[in-house]
Structure formats: C-alpha cells, structure tokens
Amino acid sequence: MTTSTRKKTVTLLSAITDALSIMLKEDERVLLLGEDIGKNGGVFRATEGLQAAFGEDRVIDTPLSEAGFVGAAIGMAANGLVPVIEIQFLGFIYPAYEQLMTHAVRLRSRTMGHYSAPIVIRAPYGAGVRAPEIHCDSTEAIFTHMPGMKVVCPSNPYDAKGLMIAAIEDPDPVLFLEPMRSYRAVKEDVPEEKYTVEIGKGALLEQGEDVTIITWGAMVPVVRSTVKQLAEDGVTCDVIDLRTLSPIDEDIIAFSVQKTGRTVIVQEAHPSSSVANDILSIINETSFLYQKAPVEKVSGFDTPVPYFSFEDFYLPTPERVREAVLKVMSF
Amino acid sequence: MTTIRFAEGGTTMENQFPIQQLLSPQGVWISDHHKELLTKERTLDFFKHMLRIRTFDRKAISLQRQGRIGTYAPFEGQEASQVGSALALSKADWLFPTYRDHGATMTFGHSLRNILLFWNGRNEGNIPPEGMNIFPPGIPIATQIPHAAGAAFAEKRKGTNNAAIAYFGDGATSEGDFHEGLNFASIFKAPVVFFNQNNQFAISVPISKQMNTKTIAQKGLAYDIPSVRIDGNDVFAVYQYVSEALRRARSGEGPTLIEAVTWRYGAHTTADDPTKYRDQNNSLKVREEIDPLLRVERCMKINDWHDENWVRQMTEEVVQEVDQAVGEMEQFPQPDPSVIFDYVYKEPTLPLVKQKQQLLNLIGGKEHDNLD
Question: What is the architecture, at CATH level 2, of domain A203-329?
C-alpha cells in the first residue's frame, strides 16, 4: 500500500457496504438479492443506501424464499449476471441447501466448464449477541463439505472489504460468512479504493515462539485477548487467522506448526465433523513429526447452539483458550 | 377458446381449466381456431420429429438392457408434449429439462451422441451445441424451475427478446421449489414458460395421492400466473399454447403455466418395474386411443397426406441417425480421470491438485486423451 492511498474509517459492516458499493458501481452485471435489503438496508444495514444509489433493479428485495432466490440466482449467474445474495442469518440458509449442494457447486463440473454459477452468498453467523434461536449458528462445515464451494470468513474490516471484492470477482460460488458480533466491534482505517484479499490465504496476526493458535472470524478477538494475557506469563503464540475455510491455506499452517510443534485450534462451531478437524488432518499430513504435543481443540459443543441465556457457557472464552494453550505447553 | 387467460364461470377447477385440444384422437381438427396450423408440411414435420424421438427412446431402452448405457428414463407416450413444446422455441431461448425431457432437447437441437453420453455416465453429454442454451437435466425434482426463472430474469435485464422454458412433471408441483420459482417469476415478470407434463404418475404414486387438486393448472392462480390445461398428446395443441406463452413472455407479459396432460407408457426408469404399482395392460389398451403418433397418422390419412413410402423412408432415416449416434457414443474416448478434478473450480485448489496426482500415480500416471 502506498502512502498516498486515501483511507477511511470503517467497521467490518461498513467495509462490506463499501465493497458492495464499489462493485455495483464498477460492474453492471453485479446485483444484490435478499430479504429486506432495499429500503431497509438489510437487518444489519449492510446494504444501507445502496438501493437509493443504484436503483431497485440492482438492489432487489426478494420474497421470503431462500431456495427460490438462490435457485434463481444460479440461473442468473449461468446467464451472465453476478448475483450477491444476502441470507439474513446463516441459520436461515438451510432451505437453500439443496440449490447450493445439487446445483451451484456442481454446475461447472457437470458441464465441464460450459456453465458455472459464480454467486456470492453473504450470511451473518455466530452467537454472542443474545439473538433469538436459529439466529446464531456457525455451521460453516456444512459448506466446506461442498466440493466446488469456497468459504471465506473475515475477522476485521480490512479483510472484509478485500475478501468481499475478491468473492464477487471469483469465478466460483463463494459463501461469505460475516461474524455478526464483530460487525461494529472495531473501527479501522482501510483504503478507500478497490483492493482484494486473496481467497485461500490465511494471515499471521501475531508472532510467537511457543504455540500456534489457528482460528477465524468471531473467535479472532477472543484469541487475541488471550494471547495478550499469555504473553504476560511468558508464553508467546503465533496467531493464524485462517480467513478462508475452503480451500484452507495449508502452507501457513504447516510453516507455523513446524516451528512451534504445539497447536491449539479455536472455533465457535460444533466440534464433530468440523473445520478444526480438517486442520488437524492437514497438520497430520504435513507436520506429524514436528509435533511435541497432541493438538487441542477449543470449540462450541455438539449441542444445538443454545438459547442466549446459555450462550456464554457454549462459546469458547479466553479462559478455555488459555487452558488449552497451557495444556499443550505442559505436555 | 384459445386465448390463455383465467377461465371464468366454472364451478370446479376442472371446469375452469378444461383440457384444450385442437386435433382429436381420431385425427380430426375439432377447433374453429388455428386452422392455419393444419398444413401438410407442419403435420409431416411433427410426425417425423415424434417418430425420431420414439425411435431414440426405444433404442436407448434396448441399449440399457444390453448393458451398453446406464439406467435410462424413457418418455414414450409423451412425444407430443416434448416435440410440440421444443419446436415452438427459438434458437436463442433457454431450455431447462428434467431427466425425462431429452425428447425435447434433441428436438430443440441437442446432439444425440451427447444425450447418449449423458446416459452412459459422461459429463461430456451435458455440453449443448455451440450457441444453444440447454441446461443439464434436473435430477432432484423441481430445482430447475427457479433456475429458469433466473435465466429468464437475466434475459429480460439484458433487454433481449429471449425466453426460458422449464420442464417438470406432476410430482414436481408438490415441491417447494415449484412454488418459489413461480412466485419469483410472477413478481419479476420473468419471460418464462413453466411447462408441466402431467403424466399422472411420480414413479409409483398416482396423481390422486400426489395432490388433492384436480388440476395442476389451478396452481398458477395462487401466483396470478395465467395458466392453461391442454391435451399433452395433441402435438398441435402443445405447439400452439407454448407458442402463445412464449409470445406473452417476449412481449413483457411474464410467465405462463401450461399443464400438458399426458401418459408415460413404460417404467419411470429402466430400474423400475411398473407392474408393481399399476396395471401395465392399461398402457397397451389406451395406446390405441391416446397415442400421439397414431393421432397424427390418422390426421395424415384423413387429409390424404399419408404416404407409406414416405413413412418408410423417414423411419429408415431416423433409425440410421440414431444408430450413427450410438456408434459415436461407443467410439467416444475412454473417460479421462482428469475430468473429475479439472472442473470443480475454475482453477483447481491445492487439495484437488494433490488428490488428482495421487489417483494418477495409482493408475500409472497416465492421462487419457482428452477430447473437446
């Protein structure tokens, strides 16, 4: 980034709005589809002002019909448009599961590239904001299990803007997970202009010597606050923000865990059949002989995400992360 | 009455949506309208197309029985619905078929070889001819209906005159995607024709158990979509009403729902035994009465257009065409294992690169010839 780049101060949420606005302006094939995204600007205001700026033909309020408008978006994308869909909460995406699994992700392979469905599906995810039930799922592993899907999950405003633009420009379907509780948590200066963050690349947020902590999305701030405490105790950590959950950046993981030999994976999701297990598998394949301790997972539980009165029991906390780090250190 | 609009004054849905017919099963033109359709040239053309797809269908069943292709979904009995609808389309329109609509896709212009390749488990079979838009067959039920609405939406947005047609069966109208697709198309006035072939069975379940409604056309009422119920074994009626629906689409009037009432003579697929759930003698009995080819043949005779020599020559022509496609399918290069990896993403991801290499190492590192 050059020093002459003009910056603006944004939240993760307004960084997304900014990215959508840039792409609507730049590419007339781009259109937004979703429930309440027009006049209302979306329930979180991610599309605030965009319908007024770009018109009802570009920023489209859909019927309450996730399967219907995701299905229609597949037809639009196959016919040259670039639909960016807002699913109001990840927990409401399931009616569209069939359209994603049986069509969006395999249209390219079914037709050997003759047709494809380059759609972006935005979905706020995660607990921690005392939301009603089903408004707090983090079921990313359902989608990383879809061959042909890319899944990204930014943790900060800079990445949110760059990954969103990259997702819209990507030739394949991308699920864009937005950490709801980080939407307005921090403000950051990001370039005003267009830039991209490469899909498939993680970021090393903190450098240390003793332990590698791998995480993403809403768990990043939890991990960073833990790491600060741990440093006071003399334990230093590499913190990897995965940013893309499919395909996973194997190199950044291998490089760090081969250095530290001790790994903690922190995720909000249910532990069974999860992205954390995929990371374990990557460590096993790339770095088995470097390991000094069994890898620890800090996760939600294999329960439905509980009602919000219980969510503090469910969500990984700095205490749980700290305990896992001390466990791999003392093995 | 041939204009597509809500019928009035009926006390039941069957009365509101009477089955529209132009040519009687006896081959007699029974309508006062559209007499201009009944020309020798068009009649012979319809006949030839129906003969062609029936020849293909029977050949495919026989190929499956011999183990030369995989499980196959036959459409015999539905030729009028598939030919009449496909011939009404323009080359630049979008066609969204199910697995039982290759009679329509081949009439529209899909390659016979590719259709056979699809039934022989090859992705190559899903590639339509240059410049044509034919989606791969919908395998889950009704999911192609929203796709057609979306592709039509895109055509409208581009300002073209093109439309989309979605094919689906009676069972599909029980699925949510049918209703969501119709609702979407209705709201955005997408230029799309929802073409239902009501063959009265969804595998083994008869329509009386599939729905309590007496018609499928009435389901369009809920979405303010003009709907019509037609004799799906009358190729003239199918051609006429699909043409009219396409005209509505092209002139900005939005979607139309057409229920073409028809009958599948045979099994759901070659893996199915219909005698377990229905009296197949009935299919033989009704053939004389409802067969779409017999109907046109009778019409040809009544109008003195029937020429045994021509029929024989046409039969030979289509048999030869189908045989040639079978030969091309069988001479097609062996499956290249790269195909399963190379089209998952535009650029392969690292896991796919590794998995492909593992497989290639295992089978001797040899990539087979890739064909365009």
Answer: 3-Layer(aba) Sandwich (3.40)
